[in-house]
Structures are given as structure tokens and as C-alpha cells.
């Protein structure tokens, strides 16, 4: 299970989708032992097949070592690490996945002039080293001077690297998916009152801009493959012209608006991976 510190404002939802998936696997005849993330770190997990929602850096290292030793791990520890901001940004851009123009910077460097030179005004600053744990780990800024101030705050908090995404105008959409299945769910989070930190208010109420849903599914599927994350979710912006760009991609989110629908598909994905694993 995911440690509470890594489920900001979503502890109950994260626990619920995990438990729902466990129940679905048991219905398929699997014996499932449930552990806390703390037990994993303490070395109490000896299974060769591990389904996890971990986020703690020590947990990720353990999961990666288990994979290297031949265990089946879903989501992959390497995939979880790939969803940290700097790595995600580099991988998505290198893979030609539609993503905002971005700067990757040290938090102690001067970025004001560079942002002005490259035409950045409104932007998002995100800690580069890890997943967001606090509201301040993702910050909206209205001009380069404010960006410089936020970077200084990050530096004083001990965060050494940051990603600056150009702000995209358009409809904000939240999505959930399960690799290798037909499951894909999307909605407008601001319109539905769905929020983690309140950032949805920046783009505001959706305008219902038309877009190609099949193209969105394909973009998200490709992102899940290059990031090596089977159970995923995230956010994208649909521009006034209908262009789709991913702005965030997460390893195993809460699936809160579609938990009951998603759990059987997540279990199906895991069960299929187990069968393939046992054939080896």
C-alpha cells in the first residue's frame, strides 16, 4: 500500500482503489497478502510478485532491486521513478509525446532573463526531483520575476532541481488508464469539483473544446509505454484548436471518479502479467 505521506488529500481514495483491486484478484483465485510501505522498507516482503502503489524513495530502490533479481513488480520501480518531474519531462520530450515547452533548471540559478528571452510569461514551476507531496511543490507563476522568487523558495526548502513548463491555455482534462486494456476514463476536473491542490482553477471551467478522444487514448498509451507504467493517470490540456498535450503523468493514481469501473481492468492487467511471468 502507499504510505499516507504520499497520498496528499487522497489517502482514503488511494486505499480504496488498492483494496478494490486486491478483491478483484482474489476473485480470480489469487492469494494476496497486503503489506504497508513501511513493511516493504523493513524487509518483510518476500513474495516474487508484487503489486504496489509505493512512492517513498527507499521503496522505489527496493522495488528496482527486486526487479533486477527477477521479480515481477507492477508498477515497475523504474516506471515510478520515471514519473518524477525531471525524468518524465526528459523522457516525454525525447519520445515526441505532446508536452509543454519546458526548461529544466537548478533552483539556485538566475532564470528571469532566460524566460524573457524565450517568451515565457505565465508558467508552472514543479520540483524536479520527486513527486509532489505539498501544494507548494507545483506553483503557478504570472511572470518571470515571480518565477525567480519561487525558485529561491524551492532552493531554501532544499529542492535543488525544478522544471518550468510554459502555461498552456485551454480545457484541463484529467484521465485514467490501464495499459493493455480497453479502460480509459476522462473528465473535466474543475467542472466536477475534483481537486488535489486547487490548481484546476487556473484554467477554470471547461469550454467543451472538441478533440479526438482516440488520439488522446493513443497519446496516453504511448506515454505509459515509454515511462514503463501500466496503471496510470494524469492531466492534459486541449488547446482552442483541439491540440492535446500531456502536462502531468502519474503512476497509479486514485481513480476516485471511476474506481468501481477501473478495478476489474487493473486486476485483469496484473493477472495477465502474472500468467506471462509464470510462463518464463
List keywords for this structure.
single chain, 280 residues, alpha+beta, Dna Ligase, domain 1, 4-stranded antiparallel sheet, 10 helices, 10 strands
Question: Could you describe the 3D structure shown?
Answer:
The chain is α+β, with helices and mostly antiparallel strands and 280 residues long. Among the domains are: 4-82 and 259-279; 101-166, Dna Ligase, domain 1 (2-Layer Sandwich), CATH 3.30.1490. 39% of the residues lie in helices and 19% in strands. The chain contains 10 helices and 10 strands. The chain has helices at 11-27, 37-41, 57-68, 77-82, 85-94, 112-117, 144-156, 189-192, 213-227, 259-279, and strands at residues 49-51, 72-74, 102-106, 123-127, 138-141, 161-166, 171-178, 184-187, 231-238, 244-251. Strands 3-6-4-5 form a 4-stranded antiparallel beta sheet, with helices on both faces. The protein has a 4-stranded antiparallel beta sheet with strand order 8-7-9-10. Strands 1-2 form a two-stranded parallel sheet. Helix 1 (11-27) packs across helix 10. The longest helix is centred in the C-terminal third of the chain and has 21 residues, at 259-279. The relative contact order is 0.16. The mean pLDDT is 91.
Amino acid at each position: 500500500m502507499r504510505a499516507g505521506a504520499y497520498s496528499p488529500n487522497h489517502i482514503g481514495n488511494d486505499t480504496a482503489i488498492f483494496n478494490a483491486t486486491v478483491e478483484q484478484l482474489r476473485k480470480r483465485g489469487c492469494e494476496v497478502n497486503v503489506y504497508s510501505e513501511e513493511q516493504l522498507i523493513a524487509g518483510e516482503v518476500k513474495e516474487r510478485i508484487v503489486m504496489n502503489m509505493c512512492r517513498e524513495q527507499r521503496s522505489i530502490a527496493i522495488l528496482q532491486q527486486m526487479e533486477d533479481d527477477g521479480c515481477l513488480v507492477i508498477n515497475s520501480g523504474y516506471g515510478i521513478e520515471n514519473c518524477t518531474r525531471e525524468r518524465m519531462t526528459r523522457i516525454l520530450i525525447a519520445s515526441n509525446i505532446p508536452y509543454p515547452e519546458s526548461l529544466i533548471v537548478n533552483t539556485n540559478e538566475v532564470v528571469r532573463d532566460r524566460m524573457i528571452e524565450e517568451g515565457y510569461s505565465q508558467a508552472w514551476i514543479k520540483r524536479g526531483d520527486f513527486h509532489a507531496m505539498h501544494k507548494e511543490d507545483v506553483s503557478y507563476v504570472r511572470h518571470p520575476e515571480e518565477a525567480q522568487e519561487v525558485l529561491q523558495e524551492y532552493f531554501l526548502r532544499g529542492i535543488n532541481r525544478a522544471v518550468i513548463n510554459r502555461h498552456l491555455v485551454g480545457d484541463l482534462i484529467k484521465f485514467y488508464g490501464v495499459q493493455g486494456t480497453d479502460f480509459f476514463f476522462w473528465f473535466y476536473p474543475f467542472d466536477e469539483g475534483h481537486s488535489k491542490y486547487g490548481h484546476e482553477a487556473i484554467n477554470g471551467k471547461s469550454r467543451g473544446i472538441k478533440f479526438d478522444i482516440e488520439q488522446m487514448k493513443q497519446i496516453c498509451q504511448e506515454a505509459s509505454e515509454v515511462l514503463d507504467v501500466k496503471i496510470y493517470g494524469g492531466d492534459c490540456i486541449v488547446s482552442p484548436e483541439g491540440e492535446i498535450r500531456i502536462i502531468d503523468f502519474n503512476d497509479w493514481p486514485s481513480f476516485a471518479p471511476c474506481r468501481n469501473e477501473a478495478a476489474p481492468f487493473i486486476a485483469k492487467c496484473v493477472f495477465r502479467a502474472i500468467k506471462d511471468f509464470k510462463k518464463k
